Amino acid sequence: MFRRTLAVLLTAPVFAGAQTPSAPVKSYVIRAAHMIDGKSDVVQNDVAVLIEGERIVAVGSRSQLASRIPASAQVIDLGGATILPGLIDNHTHVLLQGDITAADYDDQLLKESIPYRAIRATAAVRTSLMNGFTAIRDLETEGAMYADVDVKTAIARGVIPGPRMFVSTRALSTTGTYPLLGYSWELKMPEGVQIVDGPEEVRKAVREEAKFGADWIKFYADRRYFLGSDGRLRSWVNFTDEELKILVSEAHRLGKKVAAHAIGWDGIDAALRAGVNSIEHGDGLTDDLLDRMVAQKVYWCPTIFVGVYVASGRGGVWPKMVEMERVAFGKALKKGVMISYGTDVGGYAWTENQAQEFAYMVRYGMSPMAAIKSATSVAAQLLDQSENFGTIEAGKFADIVAVRGDPLADISELTRVTFVMKGGTIYKQ
Ligand SMILES: [Zn+2]
Fold this sequence. Notes:
Helices cover 34% and strands 22% of the residues. The protein has 14 helices and 19 strands. The chain has helices spanning 2-11, 62-65, 102-111, 114-130, 147-156, 199-211, 241-253, 265-274, 287-296, 304-314, 318-335, 357-363, 368-374, 377-382, and strands at residues 27-35, 44-52, 55-61, 74-77, 82-85, 87-92, 133-138, 164-167, 172-173, 194-195, 216-220, 222-227, 233-237, 257-262, 278-281, 299-301, 400-403, 417-422, 425-428. α4 packs across α5, α6 runs parallel beside α7 (241-253) and α10 (304-314) packs antiparallel against α11. The longest helix has 18 residues, at 318-335. The protein starts with a helix and ends with a strand. Bound molecules: zinc ion.
């Protein structure tokens, strides 16, 4: 896996990082044959986008904009391409490099230092940006403490190229519910999460994470998934109701939203009762739970591809979980559940393009346009960032990507992004 990652680094396109902008010009005009703006269901043709500094100042047809373009503006003619808002992945792990098996996971925590893992994370975020993802919500560091905050800071300061990051630092779980597990009691093993027991430890951990830079609070609602005699995917719940009530209320009091890893019916039920903002994975979602998600305005990050990717390696109930999630996805579409694009990349190797998720969403019944919105305007809503990005509109950050072909005809076009601009800086052309 390490060798494969190196190969990607060596062949990755040369970028114009924020430290060395591609040109001193502050204004750009992007021209393209087609535009999907992330908001409208209609593709607009023969478009121009005027950018000044970090933001979009005007969007329209080429003729509409002709009189508004300053002489100093640099023209980027993308010819027959389709431009879209920068893609958003609301479930990543930049500090993880694939964990199909427990051994893959344990090796990273036992044999790689946090500085080394952070170096690998800098490669992961560059890969993400080059694949067209201009924003990510990174859902916990898997034992790498608060290193996601450092990666985020390095990107924001222009030290390294990468997406805008929304981080959750260390996820929360309870004693005995999260790796590393199964080692001799004589050994003090590293933890993949922050272990908390009892309401007051939960409250303190939420405050600590907020103090060190968490934008979101992530916790593991459940584990040990199994098929119940009632046909539902069941699970063991990690926290008491009292603990979860404090977790969510304290996070919300500090202005942080809450993401719950919840796979089985019991875990999702507990997370929804506690009032979380997003359900991650959600394989065991049933009609009753989906109805509650709609009523409570809770987003779902299905992370389909990672389930498929790890299922054969993990065996047991995992292949069945893939099938159950496909059924749940179809139901969620009918019920109007807010589905945000999220991949769990890092759970699988970063050498896999995280845009592969789109093909599964479309195969499971989502229209290509809706899939694109789930990774642009809908994903931005989940992040409370609709004012800043998620659509190509005047006033938004100039986060714009392009593909050569028609992504509505072939959604896999999104795995072949040819142009990436973030905040008015070109990273790939
Ligand atoms: Zn994850």
